[in-house]
Specification:
Blueprint (H helix, E strand, L loop, with lengths): L4 E9 L7 H13 L4 E8 L6 E8 L2 H7 L3 H12 L2 E8 L4 H6 L1
Antiparallel strand pairs: 1-3, 1-4, 2-3
Amino acid sequence: MHIHALNTMEIRLTDAPDPGLEQRLQGDLARLQAMTGCLSYVLTRSRNQPDLWILSGYWSDGEEMTAHFNSQAMATLIDALIELGAQLNFATYAPMSAERRAAQ
């Protein structure tokens, strides 16, 4: 299957990360990876900045990627990270649809 869309979430904690945080993120990752259209979800921790993780999702379809942002699994993850005081940055990458190209 081909990757047609990608999303990233940069997670940066202002306080020292809880030692169990990475394990918790791995559990959340498993729920996100089980979603329709998800090819893979990967968690990467920065070697140089121990307070920084990048969560990346790879999708077979851009619409399914967009839909997962409204899922209970994503809402639960974001709520938990906000409670920890995490700074979050999101990005998505997907080919432009034919309709959007025509409108430009």
